[in-house]
């Protein structure tokens, strides 16, 4: 299986993840754990408490990567709490998620520490070119959620992807993930099927040519499923996920 576990307060599974890590017997330094701070816990004091709750639920002394899940509200206060937790050794790396160029330029200039990572939607149909240029200039890694386009069959059936799958004796998903890997994007495709998990990691025994990479770049539409800049997004998210409902 994968050794990179991506969880979040708003996934409501940190406790289960922590138990699974404990039960696995795998040494802590061989597992990478990412978690994320939810909107309800922004601001310095609330974020500080939320970080400690995450550590308790995960049964960990530190979290490898901790992200601001959604870029709205008192992001600067939350970030200061994350910086303090990083200095205290509770968080190894800190980053953000779902930040568009507009939101990046709104918040990041207020930060003392530049985020290590921006986790955003990314796939061949939505290649985030303006954002990638912005991040590259500051040596920030782009991490892709939904790297397979959330199972979009139109993407999987693109002629160039089908042709490359035949050429390299791979499936469409492996071609997509290999493209993203060669683009320098960090990917972690989701699956609950063991065969698919094994398939998704079998992308390191071939390399796409520069011509093939250009053909795949040409699939970019510049549009994704989620628009963090749209009005009312933060209100919709707060309504959808109440992480303190059981407090």
From TrEMBL:
Site (Lowers pKa of active site Tyr): 36
PROSITE patterns documented for this protein: ALDOKETO_REDUCTASE_1 (PS00798)
Cross-referenced InterPro entries: AKR, Aldo/ket_reductase_CS, NAD(P)_OxRdtase_dom_sf, NADP_OxRdtase_dom
Entry keywords, A to Z: NADP, Oxidoreductase
Recorded coiled-coil stretches: none
Domain NADP-dependent oxidoreductase, first and last residues per copy: 1-220
Xref: Pfam families: Aldo_ket_red
GO terms of molecular function: oxidoreductase activity, acting on the CH-OH group of donors, NAD or NADP as acceptor
Catalytic center residues: 11
Positions of transmembrane segments: none
UniProt: substrate binding residues: 69
Record-stated family: Belongs to the aldo/keto reductase family.
Name this polypeptide is given: 2,5-diketo-D-gluconic acid reductase
